[in-house]
Amino acid sequence: MTATTDAVVGVTTSPEPPTTPGRASRPSARDRFPGFALPALIWYAVFMIGPVLAMIVIGFLSWPGMLVQPGFAGLDNFSRVFADENFWTAAGNSALQIVVGLPVMIVLAFLLAFYVVQKPRGHKVLRYLLFVPALISAPATAMVFYAVLNPDGLLNGLLRPLGLDGAAWLADPSTALGAIVAVELWSGIGYSAVLIASRLDGVDAEIVQASRIDGAGDWRIAWGMYWPIARDFIGVVTMLQFLSMLFNSAQTVLLLTQGGPGTSTTTLSYLVYRKAFVETDLGYSQAVGLILFVLGLLGMGAIRRVLRATY
Amino acid sequence: MAGTARRPLLDRAGSITSGALAWIYAALLIVPLYYFIVSSFKTNEEIFESPLAFPSTWDFGNFTTAIDQADLVPAVANSALTTLGALVLTLLLALPASFALARSTGRLGKAVEGVFALGFLIPSFAALFPTFLLAALLGLFHTRAFVVLLLPATALPLSIVILTSFMRTIPRELEEAASMDGASALQVLRQVYLPICVPGIATVLLLNFLSFWNSYLYPLILIGPDTAQRTIQVALPTLKVDAGTDYGALMAGTLFTLLPVYLVYTVLQRQMQRALVSGAVKG
Question: Is residue A20 in a domain?
Fold first, then answer.
């Protein structure tokens, strides 16, 4: 058998390919109406779609506190948000987190995955380890890093014998955001690598061997073969991590720095949280939530264009 | 690739770089974890003075301190209760829905499937405040019960996508044979589909176990600080105090919250990895 590009395209990522069986039999009326899906649909509408719709409505309400009767505000919340310096700081922090953090995470995860699928010595141990951050909850991760990064913590303890002065990483405005991004990278790289490795595992070993015989080095095989083959799947992983960074950074920030010192670690998603539950400026909070939602969609579109382009 | 002749150094630059990166990252994973585990047996002074040293004595005092101070025992029970309740509810909702969607051939089924698939895009976190209002509206604010009702909704899109693709692989002939013998749709689901879908169900259970057990913001806001109701993830950060955190106790408490997950992972390692990969979602 000769390895063809068709063999590459035919590789599936999931262990069970979603095959569609031939629909030879005539469907009955019951088959056409998915009645059994109704309870799930209702549940989903009440607990997920409902709150999102409510978020959109509240974004246009003037609602300065829980006990205040809300009134219609039109676009006032948005003009208030856009005039607020804190919003732009938060937007900048989120942008930095994503523009710097996301490419670093994906490129490192890809290299890691490439290494693991070559089955070097110790790859089983490595695969086991890569999963560990995916198992640990956000509070547990945050508490470990709270201990690592405190002025008397592990990081400074390791720097001291090297003659370096550490810092109060989480309390210093110049390092706090970097520390938050580092924690996200720590927990995100391994998981992304495992996902990407599952895709690279499906690449036909024969074509890799063939190009080795033709004299291609590892670097070229990684970026010239594996990357293009896995590009659409890497796109999916990138979107996943993008959404997770954009929306879920609030928990890490809340647990480690509460947006401070000053506003140096206030990200957009943390701003949504703080405005809603600390300052009870509800219209403002949900207006930012709406902006976040739109940014999420725009970002996904952009990632799609970059990583799913036809090859 | 084993067995090939030694290649020149330049050719191997790629694997040397990625290999070095891989093992540096592995060290970055191991060192903090090692630090945190040994710290859970040490006092603050010992932790600060020699962060990587072995504890002088294996004293479990930090664990009892953590458990007492943050009321971890009821918190574990609450987490277990919430997770279990939400898992059962998720299956009760997702199984029939996936069954219906996998068998449906009409346009309506496609549309419903699309609605669930869109769920991946919903920033449920941004809608935390409306969810909080919903809890108040239902009279379930500051209760575990609301979280048990809410979590399955967050898990439905992924669970339905996985189960539907599993059920699509089941040949229709099997089902027709059962119907011919007079089985109702519910019986077909229970006696034909369920046994075949066991791996899919296991995947969904494991994935959701992780995300339910590890969820933080929803329980924090919706259940609140009541020690009789709060979950382990909410209880853990209370060990961190603004002035004078007892790091030993904090690390012991963290270790305590990880034990159930780690136990499940060790027993079901292969299934868990497969589940996480096919689920492609982060808790």
Answer: no
